[in-house]
């Protein structure tokens, strides 16, 4: 597998990570990949155009939230839990938990 | 004081709050107002044009992160800690802590 470019851990900034997470589709993608590490980028099953999806994954990768690699005709994706955990301890877990709370049917909308 | 419009607590979304926090200037503004509740919007002492600053405060207010009120010729601002604490428990404290860590001189950049 050929890894795609990603920022070095010390280049990550809180603002760019929060910006990358600050979109409902991207929150859903992050939630998907947290339960399916190494999933295909196309496998999230969201009803968004392919180009939009590609753009969302790129924003997440360039902010340092996910790692991506080309595997034949497919792109695979992982959360950079190690790096995020070191740079911003607890943030990713909290965002995943809040995303889950927000999407449960019992949540007040 | 005349309050400016703000979203009702149940209208806040995690994505829009994260988006609002996902900018270095806005993180700094949030950090300022956390230590000086009721401060004047113009009082953050940042080197950004006034129109840019106004826009950043508006994004924070419309996302539900801050509350603003007109006080004579000045606009005052507060964090909506109550609402944020109920909707997204722990998030604001974590972001403030991580912002502080990131801006300490010992942080690796």
Describe this structure in words.
Two copies of one chain form a homodimer. With 109 residues, chain A is an alpha+beta fold. Chain A has one domain (2-101): Arc Repressor Mutant, subunit A (Orthogonal Bundle), CATH 1.10.10.10. Chain A has five helices and four strands, in the order βααβαββαα. Chain A has helices spanning 14-21, 24-35, 50-62, 81-87, 91-103; strands at residues 2-3, 39-40, 66-71, 74-79. Chain A has a four-stranded antiparallel β-sheet with strand order 1-3-4-2. In chain A, helix 2 (24-35) crosses helix 5. The first copy, chain A, is globular. The model of chain A has no long low-confidence stretch (mean pLDDT 93).
Helix content of chain A: 40-55%
> Which sheet architecture does the biggest sheet of chain A show?
4 strands, antiparallel
Question: Strand sequence of the main sheet of chain A, in spatial order?
Answer: 1-3-4-2
CATH architecture of chain A: Orthogonal Bundle
Note the run of SSEs of chain A as H and E: EHHEHEEHH
Counted beta strands of chain A: 4
Oligomer type: homodimer
Break the fold down into its secondary structure elements and pairings.
2 copies of one chain form a homodimer.
Chain A: E1 2-3, H1 14-21, H2 24-35, E2 39-40, H3 50-62, E3 66-71, E4 74-79, H4 81-87, H5 91-103
Antiparallel strand pairs in A: 1-3, 2-4, 3-4
Helix pairs in contact in A: 2-5
